[in-house]
Q: What sequence folds into this?
């Protein structure tokens, strides 16, 4: 397909239903001390931990499109099921409260469920209905069963997150928009777009960034650092992420050819498992906190940051590169993992 302009892409984005939830544009901050400590490239952090809604995070952008679409279709109940410390669930509960939509969360009774802290505490404060499921149960199956019960009551439910291709594709659309915002910020600085974007992503966020890069004909390399691997029900391999790029572009009326080989999504920094801290993530979080006064949680955003640190140390990135780390948030989880910190 022909290369698009940002104006064309924004016009297509503006045609989709959307609600206002996030504080945008989010800041783009240079991190010279962090870079100097690593002897690495020029680094900026795109602060999507500052989207405002319920302590911020990337889901606020995504819910603008997902819930805009849902409301346009008459949805009056939203259902989400994930880990008990889900960032998605926390921000969905806040968005639903703001929009006057009933919200049902179906967290797994995992190791963090009994301690009502962090994301789970905040989600409850927004009035979400909590319907826990056993750790071994399929969240997809549980959510669909809940949706069927609600339909039988005459309600119009929507499953969000895992199990809803429409919602996941709209989440990617949100990061096509975010990439345009990021390039606008580089333009305002009189700088070229970044050579690399690093992001903690299990699918949609990376897909949106990759789709935008390709639609605009940019050379930016998008590298996703996955916080989970195939052991988790929500894991999406590179081929699925590629398909999500195509689907997101199609929602905007554009054809895009994306293959598995176009997607860089690494599971090398998962550590012991999803939702568990890793030594590399802890070190990366300590580095950014001590050098720039920026927080990253030990089980999600810091795992992506550890991928960036690892690539600098291995020589994969050089001093001539211009790198953006897209901070996806997750900060309330810090309090749930207080015992994992050594100092």
A:
């Amino acid at each position: 397909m022909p290369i698009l302009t940002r104006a064309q892409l924004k016009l297509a984005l503006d045609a989709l239903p959307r609600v206002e939830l996030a504080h945008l544009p989010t800041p783009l901050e240079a991190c010279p001390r962090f870079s100097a400590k690593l002897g690495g490239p020029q680094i900026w952090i795109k602060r999507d931990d500052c989207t405002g809604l319920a302590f911020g995070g990337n889901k606020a952008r995504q819910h603008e499109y997902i819930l805009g679409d849902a409301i346009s279709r008459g949805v009056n109940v939203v259902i989400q099921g994930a880990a008990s410390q889900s960032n998605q669930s926390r921000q969905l509960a806040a968005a639903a409260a703001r929009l006057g939509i009933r919200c049902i969360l179906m967290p797994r009774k995992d190791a963090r469920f009994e301690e009502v802290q962090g994301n789970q505490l905040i989600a409850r404060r927004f009035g979400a209905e909590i319907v826990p499921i056993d750790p071994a149960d399929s969240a997809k199956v549980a959510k669909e069963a809940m949706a069927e019960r609600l339909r039988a009551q005459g309600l119009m439910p929507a499953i969000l997150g895992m199990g809803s291709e429409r919602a996941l594709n709209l989440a990617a659309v949100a990061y096509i928009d975010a990439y345009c915002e990021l390039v606008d910020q580089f333009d305002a600085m009189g700088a070229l777009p970044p050579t690399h974007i690093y992001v903690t992503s299990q699918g949609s966020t990376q897909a949106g960034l990759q789709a935008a890069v390709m639609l605009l004909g940019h050379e930016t390399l998008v590298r996703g650092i996955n916080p989970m691997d195939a052991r988790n029900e929500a894991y999406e391999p590179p081929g699925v992420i590629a398909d999500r790029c195509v689907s997101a572009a199609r929602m905007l009326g554009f054809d895009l050819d994306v293959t598995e080989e176009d997607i860089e999504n690494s599971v090398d920094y998962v550590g012991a498992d999803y939702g568990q801290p890793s030594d590399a993530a802890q070190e990366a979080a300590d580095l950014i906190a001590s050098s720039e006064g920026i927080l990253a949680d030990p089980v999600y955003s810091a795992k992506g940051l550890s991928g960036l640190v690892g690539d600098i140390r291995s020589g994969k990135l050089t001093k001539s590169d211009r790198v953006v780390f897209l901070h996806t948030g997750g900060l309330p989880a810090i309090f749930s993992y207080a015992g994992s910190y050594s100092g």
The radius of gyration is 19 Å. The first helix runs from residue 6 to 14.
